[in-house]
Amino acid sequence: MKVTILGSGAYGIALALMFNENKCDITLWEKFEEHAKQIRETRINDRVLPNVLIPKNIKIMSDLEESIKNSELIVIAIPAGFVDEVAAELAKYIKKGQHICIATKGIEQDTCLFIDDVVQKYIKTKNIAAISGPSFAVDIANHVPIGLTLATKNKKTAALIHQGLENKTLKLRDTDDLVGTEICGSIKNVIAIAAGMIDGMGLPESTQAMLITESLHDIKELIKALGGDGKTILSFAGFGDLLLTCTSTKSRNFSFGRLIGSGTSKDEIDNYINNTTIEGLYTLKSIHKLIKNKKVDIPIIDLIHDIVFYDKDPNEIKRFLIEKQ
């Protein structure tokens, strides 16, 4: 099976290694030829996965049309903010029988669209799925046991992704709830910022657990309000990803929140923002706007938004958790 992965970042490379386990013909697409050439020559993206070698049989290209030519499966693994631009270009070249797997998590800022909606804006297809779950790229690359949710209503798309991805260390659980899966994958990065704040304030795991539990209830209500299945909160994409992202220092969202909670100077925080991709920061603006537009009451999102963007005291989280109904 020929697979094209859009994005040469940590997650794209990690997924390429999984597809490679199953003897797929893999092309890794990188937008900028200079960077693509560097990775081709060194077989490493030392900026994101410095100790992970990319096998020589994995092709690395910057020509999008050529990259997806004859591919059965196209995997989108680029930051959420670039999906619109890439999807618009992809629409020029994609063929009717090709399938799309979304590995990007997030919500578009201006439109509040989820990633599959952004793609569908340009490419009208039923051959679309999303994967989501507790899976740091470095852990996938190191071949430790990983579980992901696979969300799609298309059986053929699901079969292709199972065929290409599942192996002795990666497991997929199916659902047809694309909406719920994308909500979980987006909002967990935002909650992780609050979890980092709690850690930065020196509060223990008991308070972390309280935040996670309260957040599960709120996310479940948001899923139902937007037409998804509330049970998705108990999936790899839901509780699994929330637990991982809210408790690990590998999470850039958690690390960002910890800087705020520990009282780090604004200059240091700005420097971290400028040099790090913090998906939760991008998503926070979108999810805050979305819940206002949909008139859904999620107070924890309002509070995180005010702390991050309006310098509200992070200690308000302690009061909020006690007083929350």
Defining traits:
alpha/beta, N-(1-d-carboxylethyl)-l-norvaline Dehydrogenase, domain 2, 325 residues, Rossmann fold
Notes on the structure:
It is a single chain. The chain has 325 residues and is of the alpha/beta class. 52% of the residues lie in helices and 12% in strands. The protein has helices spanning 10-21, 33-42, 64-68, 83-90, 115-122, 137-141, 155-165, 178-200, 205-225, 236-245, 252-261, 266-275, 279-293, 299-310, 316-323, and strands at residues 2-6, 25-29, 59-61, 73-76, 99-102, 128-132, 146-151, 170-175. The protein has an eight-stranded mixed beta sheet, with helices on both faces. Strand 7, helix 7 and strand 8 (170-175) form a beta-alpha-beta unit. Helix 4 runs parallel beside helix 5, helix 8 (178-200) runs parallel beside helix 11 (252-261) and helix 13 crosses helix 14 (299-310). The longest helix is centred in the middle third of the chain and has 23 residues, at 178-200. The protein is globular and about 55 Å long. The termini are far apart.
